[in-house]
Write a sequence for this structure.
């Protein structure tokens, strides 16, 4: 599951050799100072979307990129504070929304993206399988983004990351508060075959997160419902002939 799209920014795409992101719990001043407003805001959101759950998610602080290494320190916050920070145009600019995406590339050169179901918070949006990292993605004192992307891929599509040839490293798409970590996964199957398998998985789910799977081969397949960090990544990949 992804959270609401980020505000429009200019995005850059950087190759990343490895991630060194720790887990360092700490208070969040924004959440502490605006707790009353946050609680009221989230209560209204839950009134409109009763399935919303105020769990714990991770935010990234101390972001630094040097020599192909992305470093930072994540801490956990309640979802109500996290989504309020987004809705109120990111008043604390010292932290980032950092998440991992599984960018599935078929044997015939197409990417596969999911359309979120109408019952979800982001109904109608189109992007790669992913989710906001949470405490399940913490391994000791580190944040395991490889584990996060594998879990979200399995939950949303039914596909196992082990059946793909995962490209070494990542692409980091940076823009404003967003840090989208893209893991390129190459498949031996065609786009049509992959789409059929995923749709079969969705049909077996009681309440699937995804409503449809989009096959994207070029500019003509881009859609306004795709967040800008997704289209920035796709254009970078196409322009570099990957």
């Amino acid at each position: 599951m992804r959270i609401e799209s980020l505000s429009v920014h200019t995005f850059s795409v950087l190759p990343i050799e490895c991630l060194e992101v720790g887990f360092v719990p700490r208070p969040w001043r924004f959440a502490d100072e605006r707790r009353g407003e946050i609680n009221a805001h989230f209560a209204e959101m839950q009134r409109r979307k009763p399935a919303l759950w105020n769990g714990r998610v991770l935010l990234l602080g101390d972001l630094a990129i040097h020599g192909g290494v992305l470093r930072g320190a994540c801490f956990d916050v309640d979802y109500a504070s996290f989504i309020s920070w987004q809705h109120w145009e990111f008043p604390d600019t010292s932290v980032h929304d950092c998440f991992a995406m599984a960018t599935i590339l078929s044997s015939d050169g197409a990417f596969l993206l999911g359309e979120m179901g109408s019952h979800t918070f982001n109904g109608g949006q189109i992007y790669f399988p992913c989710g906001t990292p949470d405490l399940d993605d913490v391994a000791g004192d580190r944040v395991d983004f490889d584990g996060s992307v594998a879990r979200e891929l399995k939950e949303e599509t039914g596909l196992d990351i082990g059946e793909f040839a995962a490209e070494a490293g990542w692409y980091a798409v940076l823009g404003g508060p967003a840090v989208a970590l893209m893991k390129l996964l190459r498949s031996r199957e065609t786009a049509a075959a992959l789409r059929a398998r995923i749709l079969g998985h969705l049909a077996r789910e009681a309440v699937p997160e995804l409503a449809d799977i989009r096959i994207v081969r070029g500019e003509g397949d881009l859609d306004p419902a795709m967040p800008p960090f997704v289209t920035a990544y796709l254009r970078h990949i196409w322009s570099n002939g990957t």
Q: What stands out?
A: The first helix runs from residue 29 to 33. Residues 12-239 form a domain with the Nucleoside Triphosphate Pyrophosphohydrolase fold (CATH 3.90.79.10). Residues 65 and 71 are 6 Å apart (CA to CA).
